[in-house]
Amino acid sequence: MRNSYKARRGTSIAAAALSFALVAPTVQAAVVPQAGPAAHAETSGTVVVTPPTDPTKLIEADGIANGYVTNRTGMTNAFATLSGLIGLKETTGSSSLKGTMGINDATIYMQFKDRDGTISPIFTTKSHQLGDDSGNYVFDLRARDGEGNVLSHPDSEVPGGEYSFVDVNGKPHLFRAVRGQEYRIWVDSPLKNEETGNNLAYVRQAGGGVPGAWAPVTQGTANGAFYLEANNMQRTGIFLEERAPSAEANSYMVSPNFSMDNEGWHKPTGTEAPRYSYYGNVWKDAQGGPDRNEIGPLYQWDGDQPMEGAKVYASVLSDEGIAEYKRLAIGDKPYREQAAATKSMIENMRANGKEPILKTVGAETDAEGRYTIRMGEDVGDRMNDYTYLWAEKDGKVLNSFSGFPTPVFQKVNGNAGENPNWGGNIGIPSFIGNRWYNINFAEVQADIATLDIVNYDSYLNPADLPEGINNLEPAKIKLTGALPFSGDNKIVWNGPDGKQIGKDCPVNTLADAGKCALAPADFATPGTYVAQLVNAYGVVIAQDSFIAVDKVRQNGEFEPKYKDTEAKVGETTTVEAPKDKDGKQLPDGTSFNQVTQLTDPNGKQIDTPDWVTVAPDGKIEVTPPEDAEVGEYTIPVLVTYPDGSRETITAKVTVKGETPVPTNPDWDGASTTPGKDVTVPKKDGSGEVPAGATVETGSWYC
Fold it and tell me: In 3D, which of 249, 274, 210 has the Cα closest to residue 540?
C-alpha cells in the first residue's frame, strides 16, 4: 500500500503543478487576512485541532490596521510584535529615524526563524501615520481567524496560548523575541515616490544592516533595533534613498550648463590640489564586516571593491535658484516632501525662462574608485550650501549609500553623519579653498537573493520518512534574485541538532544551487533541516527549512477514488464525492480544491474549462457545451486532510456527444388479410411527420 501511495502522490502533485516552497514577495500570492472588524486582546478560545499553516499564502499581520497598536508607546509594549519605521535615510539608527522622514502605505515583509530552525511563512504589513509620525509599521504575529479573533493553541508556550503559525507536526510557533530566534524584514525594491515619479531605493536596514539579511534578535542594540526579551522586537528600520533620473536620461537635476571633468583624480591635500572641487570614492559594499551592525555610516574595509568607471555628478544652484529655494522654504519642509518641492521649483522656473541650476559637472572614477570634480571658481561659496551629488554606472543611478539621500540641494556636509567613510576619514571635511573631500558612494546590492527548498517544506509537504529513504527525493534548492557580488558564496545545510551537515557547497551562479541538494540519507532523522545561503563574510543572506516526519499522515492512510462518469453535452452531470477505497467516507474536515489544468481526450494538458467545477465537498459538476470535444477527460483534484497533508487524485469523465436526430419518418412493415384494416407502426427513433403534411400508402404487394 505504501508503494502505491508513493507512486500516486508523486505523479499527482507533479500533474497539479503545485509548489509548496515559500513564496517570493514579488510573486502575486494570495493574502490571508488576519484582521477582522475589530481587534481582540483576548484569545477566542483554544483551537483543539489546528491544521498546518499554508506557506504559499502571505499572512496579513498589520497590527496598526487591526487596532492592536494605536500609538508609538504601543509599539514598544505590544506582545508578539515586530515594529519599526520605514523612511528616507537621514540617520542610520532606526531609533532616530524621524517621523518627518517616514513613508506611509509601504508594504513591508517579514519572516522569522524559530529556535528549532523552523522558518515561518511570510507575513506582510503596511506603514501608517501614528500621531505626528509617519512610516510606522507593526507586525502583529498572533494568529487570528477571519473575524479578527486572536487564536490560541493548547501546546503554546505562553499562558494565553497565542501562536504565529503551526508546522506539519502540529507544533505552534510564536515570535516574541526570545534568544535563538532570528528575523528578516524587506520591501519590494525599488518603491516609488508618486509625487516625483522617482524610485525609492532600499539601502540599509536595522537589524541586519544588509537589505533582506537575517539577524538574531539579540543583535538588536548594535544597529538601533531593540529586543524586549520574551515580548517583542522594536525600533527596526528600513532606510530608503530617493533617486532622480540619470544624467543620460535627461535628469531634471542636470543643468543645461553641463560638462565633464576629464583631468582625473587628484589628492585633496597640498598646494596643487584643485580649489572649488569635490573629492571622494565609489565602491561596492561587501555586505559584511563590522559596519554591518553599527549605528552610523558604512566604513571601507578589506572586502569592499573599488568601482572603476563610475561617473559622479554635482549640481549647484544659481543665485535665482537659491532665492526661489529660500522663498519656498524648501529646507523647512518635512524631509519626505523636499524632493517633490525641489522638482516642482525647477520645472516652474524653467517654464518661466529661468534656470535654477548654475552648472552640473561630472567626473569618472579611476581604477581605485577615486574621483575629483573641479567645479570652477564661478560657483563660489554656493557649492558649500546648495549642492546635490549622485553616482552612476553604465547610465544607471547607483543604489548607493551616501550623504545625499534625496534629490534636494543641501549643505555639502549636511548629512555627513551618514556619509560612508573611506581610508580613515570621517564625515565630509574640507580644506581651505572649498576643497570638500571624502564624499563617498557605497553601492548596496538591492536585488535580494531568495532560497527555496522546492520539494519539501515545514508545513504541507514534509519529507515522509515512512516512505523509506530509497523512495524519497533529495531536498532540492532553488536560488533566485542575485548572489552577493563579493563571491565565495556557499550553501550550508544544518540538521535538527543545529550542526552543519557535510561540507560547504560553493555557489558561483544561481544554477549552482542544483548541485547542493541534501541526500535522503542525510535527513533520515526526524526534525527540522535548514538550508542557508551564506556570503563570504558569514552573513546569512537567505534560508529555508523543511521537516522530516516519521509518522504516517492521512494522505498515506486513505486512498479516495472517484467513479468513472459519463456526461452528455448540453447537460449538467454531477460526479459524486470520492470515497476511500473500501467505500467508507473520508474523515470529517477533508476538503477538495480544483487545480488549474486537466488532461483532454487527446492526452494534452489544458487549462481547466469553466464548465468543470469542483465543490469543496468533492463533488464535480460538468456541463460540457455542444462544441466540447467528446472523449475522456482526466480531472485532477487536490485533497487536503484534517491533519494538513495533501494529495492529488483524478476523476475520469467521458463526454458523450448528442445522438443524431433522423430527419425522415419511416415505418415498419405489417401484414393483413383482404378487407381487414391494419395499423402500420412508425419505426422507433425515426423522424416525425412535419406539421401540415399528410401520409399516403404506396403500392401493396402480396
Answer: 210
Q: How many CB atoms lie within 10 A of CB 84?
A: 30
Please state whether beta strands 573-575 and 31-32 pair in parallel, antiparallel, or not at all (unpaired).
Answer: unpaired
CATH architecture classification, 554-656: Sandwich (2.60)
Stretch (H or E) spanning 529: strand 527-534
Q: What Cα–Cα distance (Å) separates residue 342 from each residue in 239, 326, 406? A: 21, 11, 10
Contact present, 174 and 158 (Cβ < 8 Å): yes
User: Kind of pairing, strands 277-284 and 370-374?
Assistant: antiparallel
Domain layout of the chain by residue ranges = 59-240, 244-443, 452-549, 554-656
- pLDDT per residue as tens digits for the range 350-373: 999 999 999 999 999 999 999 999
Task: Report residue 385 as a C-alpha cell.
Answer: 550650501
| Cis amide bond preceding 190, omega within 30 | yes
CA distances from 471 to 1, 17, 465, 499 (A): 13, 20, 9, 25
Identify the sign of the CA torsion 331, 332, 334, 337. Answer: negative
Q: What is the pLDDT of residue 24?
A: 34
Q: Is the pLDDT of residue 27 over 50?
A: no
Q: In this structure, are residues 185 and 236 in contact, taking their beta carbons and an 8 Å threshold? A: yes
At residue 76, the 3 state secondary structure works out as: helix
Residue 260 exposed, middle or buried by CB count within 10 Å (0-12, 13-18, 19+): middle
- pLDDT tens digits, residue range 272-316? 999 999 999 999 988 776 666 665 667 777 788 899 999 999 999
- Judge whether 37 and 147 are in contact, CB under 8 Å: yes
Q: What span, in angstroms and rounded, lies between the C-alpha atoms of 536 and 97?
A: 30
pLDDT at 11: 26
- How many Cβ atoms sit within 10 Å of the Cβ of residue 22? 26
Give the whole-angstrom CA distance, residue 616 versus residue 577.
10
Return the SS3 of 556.
helix
Residue 22, pLDDT > 70, answer: no
Of 316, 290, 298, 444, the closest CA to residue 377 belongs to: 316
CA distances from 132 to 100, 234, 455 (A): 8, 19, 47
Q: Are strands 191-193 and 597-599 parallel, antiparallel or unpaired?
A: unpaired
Q: Which residue has the cell 489546528?
A: 50
CA distance 299 to 289: 9
Helix (H) or strand (E) holding 346, with range, is helix 335-351
Q: How far apart are CA 56 and CA 459, in angstroms?
A: 10
Grid cell at residue 412: 555639502
For the CA atoms of 404, 406, 411, 415, the dihedral, rounded to the nearest 10 degrees, stands at: -50
Rounded Cα gap, residues 318 and 328, in angstroms: 15
